[in-house]
Design brief:
Family: Belongs to the protein kinase superfamily.
Largest sheet: 5 strands, antiparallel
Pfam families: Pkinase
GO molecular function: ATP binding; protein serine/threonine kinase activity
Keywords: ATP-binding, Kinase, Nucleotide-binding, Serine/threonine-protein kinase, Transferase
Distance between the termini: 8 Å
Oligomer: single chain
Radius of gyration: 20 Å
Shape: globular
Order of helices and strands: EEEHEEEHHEEEEHHHHHHH
Helix content: 25-40%
Strand order of the largest sheet: 1-2-3-5-4
Organism: Phaseolus coccineus (Scarlet runner bean)
Structural class: alpha+beta
Amino acid sequence: MEKYEVVEENVGYGRFAMVKLMRHRETKHLVAVKFIPRDHMINEKVAREIINHRSLRHPNIVQFIEVALTPTHLAIVMEYAAGGELFYEVLNVGTMTEDRARYFFQQLIAGVSYCHDMEICHRDLKLENTLLDGSPANRLKICDFGYSKSYLLHSRTHSMVGTPAYIAPEILSGKEYDGKLADVWSCGVILYTMLVGTLPFEDKADRQNLRKIVQRVSVVQYEFPDNVLCEDSKNLISRIFVANPAKRITMKEIKSHPWFLKKLPEELREEAHYIYYNEENTKHCLQSIEEIMNIVNEAKTTPVASSPNL
């Protein structure tokens, strides 16, 4: 990690990890670096997160750069999104116009659809895991692949993971489910929240009650406020919030829905996306999977220092 210098100590954190803003000493490029304590914190989930993220290269996904080892931490180096979480955009404006919500939703679907085409489901899509790059265009970037699963590399999805307000009803059953269709549900929660300003399944009188949220999700209990949304947006949301995943709108159907297609930017059209699926696009990472796994496995060993040396 000698080639990076710290710019800001803590720009994000999770249950076990912290994220620092750092700068490459030579190129001066800013990066976000996620530090995970070594030893027992490093497990199959961490390896899966890194390998899945490494395989994705798309303008609406935070770019994975490399993984490195410090005496005390495993460091995941990623693209820095200067605009912060979409969550704060919603928090600041309350409700978005349909045009602005559509603009972000179109990018969200482009990124998630690409993940699915690469046979990866995210499983924790939420406003906090969608970042903005801070550019004049304010491009959306999907981040945090900690719960992701590859249909090519991993077992079928059955774990009850994700954030209660965003998870699909089938996840609550504890049985095997289609992670891609569960992602579609989470995208619907993000869309509803951007348009309405509140989460669809929370009890407005008891917002922090997770048990009530889960109950409402399981029976798909939500409502549209009066005179806020157009019929097309309500139609799209109602086709996403369907308890039976087999009857839920698919990603392909979302991309052909009239509300989604309105004012769709040229760069998000299907014909513009072929470049992200060619072989050259997947050769971007300098580190091989074998090299990454060697670093991850080494990170499982006991740290050699008692105090952080990041």
